[in-house]
Every structure is written in structure tokens, then in C-alpha cells.
Amino acid sequence: MKRLRLQGVPVQRWQSKLEEASKSLPGSTYLRETGERFLLHGCSPEVVLGILHSGFDDKVTKKGMFGAGCYFAEDPEKADQYARPDPHHKASGLEELHAR
User: Where is the PARP catalytic domain (predicted)?
Assistant: First the structure.
């Protein structure tokens, strides 16, 4: 960011709706300086461990509104549209997720 400013590249401040809530998250110290922001991703409970283990993989995504890819939002309401409920910790196949 400093290099961009020194080169005269205009850097506009972007205020995320999650900015206040993300101040207490790990790594948030440098968010302001780098221009990075935390975003949300809505998904089903069955894929959470895979994402945590391997990260997001756009090769296994289904076609979305703007094409295949990983989608993120700053609005909790938008991420909520894609999240699926966790059936009360007793669903088959989610034991490992709940154990962790």
C-alpha cells in the first residue's frame, strides 16, 4: 500500500460492514494497512471440514450466478442465503465436524 501511495496510485478506503466485528479476529492488526477484509461464505455443514482442511477450490464448485467459482460476501444476510442448517448435532456424517 505504501508503494502504491508513493507511486501516486489513488487508494480509496473501503469500509466493510464486517470491519467492526473483525477487529478482534486473529490477523486483524494489518487489515487496515493492506486493504484486506474478512468476508463470509455460506455453505452446508457437510463441506466445512473439507474447506478448513484444503481451502476453497474453484475446480469443485457448481455453476453460480456469475459462473463457477467461490463466492464471498460482506453481508451476513447474503452468506446466510447459501448456508444450510446443521440438524442439531445428530446428523449422520457430521460427527467429526462436531468433535472438532
Answer: 1-100
